[in-house]
Each structure stands twice: as structure tokens, then as C-alpha cells.
Sequence to fold (372 residues):
Amino acid sequence: MDSNESPSASNGIPSPQPPPSFSSRMAPLWTDGLGKAAVRSVQVLAVGAVAWVAVVAATRVPLVTTPVLIALILASAMAPVVRWLAGHGWPRALAVLSSFLVILAAAAGVIGGIVTLVRQQSNALAVRAEAGIAELQKSITTGPLPFSREQISAAQGEFQKFLSGGSLGADALTGLRTAGEIAAGTVLTAVILFFFLKDGERIRNFLIGFLPARRRGNAHLAAERSILVLGGYVRGTLIIAAIDALIVLAGLLILRIPLAVPLAAVVFLGGFVPIIGATAAGSLAVLVALVENGPVPALLVLIILVVANQFEHHILQPFFMGRVLRIHGLVIILALAAGATLAGVIGALLAVPLTAVGWTIYRTLAGNRTTS
Fold:
């Protein structure tokens, strides 16, 4: 008998096997369908927790995050102009400086003009809006619907309480709570915008340099597509908002509604919130028409707003942003609601472009994984 052979083996009796380990006994729990679903659920919860922490941290410092995001969006919109000027023989520094000054002058002129126009007529708009609400309340109480004045007053009080006490009302001014913060945010946005236009590629390469080498190619591609999406979104939104305002202005002038120009300016500002912004802002025009011209012109103004909204959704958006905003309308509404809840008006303005960028990055990375 060989010295290395055990007695049990020589007698044909198999040697006893060691007991299975704890990990081997638990393995079947994680390899069936329910186990795989549990593992994926934990992964989704972990990723969601990290994303939530990042969002909450960003909303805690709006003086930093808001100028960075606004400057990034504006730089993406101006990048083609800088490249075009540089490609036609302009020194890059001169191309950046001229583009920077032009966008600052245009933004200051448009925003300043609209704000001045609306501010000059703000008292008249407020008076007519209040009278319109009272007229609407009177029509409801005397109409066929069984609503009493007490029920309407209670609903109005709850709505005002929501606006004044909720997060939407707290942040609805601009997301920057004092005049000093607004000025600081404006200056910071301008400075960041200049450096994004001047050194945007270097900044991007620096950030992507932290990734593993095998991931950098996909990251560069996702960044390029994100810049195209942001730039196209800004340009398309600006054009669509202007067209909406012109349509409403023409209707108000034809119907001879007072304060037509400031009302159209309000619609233009509301047009930067997709789908619902221009229509919601135009409700002020309906109230003014109800007070000054009666219910029939007010109904006609409402019809104009609905037609403009459908024209925007079915014709303008596919034409100007068909290759940019490839997101379902329900997703846009949910993004607007989430953005308004987290950061007020600023959040509503930034929610859709950020969602579009996130979807672009996901599609880019997922497409490269499937083709590789």
C-alpha cells in the first residue's frame, strides 16, 4: 500500500467531505430571480442616495451652483460663435472677448428692457389682475357650479399660504435671497462665463483626466454631445419664446386688450419654461381682458394661448429642438415639478436642460457599451 494513500481510500470508502461554507450555503439566495432583483434594488438605492445627496448639497449653495450652471448653458450656446470667429482668422482671445461682450450686452438689453417695461406697468397689471380674480370669483359663485364664497375664499387662502410658506414661494423670486446676492451672482456668472468661453476645453480635459484611460473617450464624446444639446436648447428656447410672445401680442392688439406689450413681455419670460410657462404667464392677459373687455374677449385670449401652446408643442419644438429635446412631455413636466420644488423658479428654468444633458450622457454611454 502506498504510504500516501489513506486507509479509507484503499478499502473503497470515500473520505469525508468538509462541510459547506456559509458563503456557499447563502449563494443560492442571491442567484435566483428574487436575489438578483434584491441586489439590483440595493444598487439603485445606493446610486439614488448619492444623487440625492449631491442635489441637496448643490441646492444648499445656490450662489455657487446657479452661476456655474447658467454660465455653462450660455457658454454652450456661444461656443459655435467662438469657433466660427476663430475659424475665420480671428485670434481666439479676440473671438472670446467679442462674443462675451456681445452676449452680455444683448442679455442686459433684453432683460433690462423687459424688466423696466413690466415694472412701469406693474401697478396697473396688479390692479387689473386682482379685479380679474374678483370677477372670476363672481362668475363662479353665480354660475351653475355649486361653489360658495366661503369655499372659494378657503381655497384662495390655502393657495396663498402655499405660495408664501412653501419651498416654491420661498425660492420663487430668483433663488438668491438678497439684492447683494443677486449682484454677486450676476458678477460671478459673468466671470465664470468668460473663463468657460476662454478655457472651456482645458477645463473639460482636466476634469475628464480623473477618469480611467479607457473611459475618457466616451466621456469626451458625451461632453461634446452635451454641449450641442445645451446650445441648441438655449437657442431654440429663445426663438420659441419670442414667437409665442409675438403671437400673443398680435392677438392682444387685434382684440384691443390694454397693456398688450407688457403682457407679451411676461409671456416671453414665461416661454423659457417649456410646455406650460407661456400659457401660465398668459393667464394674466386673460384676467386683464376679463376686467377691461368682458368675458368674450377673455375667452378669445384664452383660445389664443391654447393655440399658441399647441403650435409650440407640435410645430415649433420639433422644428427648432427636434434633435435636442428628445424627451417625452411627461418627463419634462416631472422635471419642472422637481426643479421648482428643489430650487424655485431657477430650478424650473434649469431642470429641463439638465435633464436633457443627463439623458444625452446616458444614451451616449449606453450606446457605446452596446456597440463595443
